[in-house]
Amino acid sequence: MTTDATLASHLQELRRGTVVVASLIALRTPGYGYSLLETLSEAGFDVEANTLYPLLRRLESQGLLVSEWNTDEARPRKFYRTTDQGNAVAETLSGEWSRIDRAINDLSFTHPGSDK
Question: Locate the Transcription regulator PadR N-terminal domain: which residues (predicted)?
Answer without folding.
Answer: 28-90
